[in-house]
Amino acid sequence: MRFTNIVTSFIKNGDRILILKRSDKVKSMKCLWAGVSGIIEKNDTTPLDRAKTEILEETGINEEEIELLKANERIKIEAVQYKNHEWNIFPFLFKTKNPEIKLNWENSEFKWIKPNEIKNYETVPELEKILFSLL
């Protein structure tokens, strides 16, 4: 079984969390809602380092503007679109006082939602489960 290591971060501002709509230019999960996500690269020292890098790249929020609230153990998810493949998700929850988002090309839209509203969005697999494991 092959696998890909991925970080997925949720950013909290008050009672709302940030979700991003993946653009049609990304390789996988096009046009689905997600947290701030990215593949852990070989040269990354830790999943937390990759999470902070992805947050800066995808939202414009820098490390000084976020505070880590919680990190969970890896969650394994079967990659339905690929045969014999798993996603190893490393989930994080951060908070910020900065609700200003500057999207890059990887995402086309963002929303600040209440956590229980996640069920109203077409998301990447298991996003609701990942979110509620952090809350």
From TrEMBL:
PROSITE patterns cross-referenced by the UniProt entry: NUDIX
InterPro entries tied to this protein: NUDIX_hydrolase-like_dom_sf, NUDIX_hydrolase_dom
Residues forming coiled coils: none
Pfam families reported for this sequence: NUDIX (PF00293)
Signal sequence residues: none
Superkingdom, taxonomy of origin: Archaea
Domain Nudix hydrolase, chain residue ranges per copy: 1-135
Protein name: NUDIX domain-containing protein
Organism expressing this protein natively: Marine Group I thaumarchaeote
Lineage of origin: Archaea, Nitrososphaerota, Marine Group I
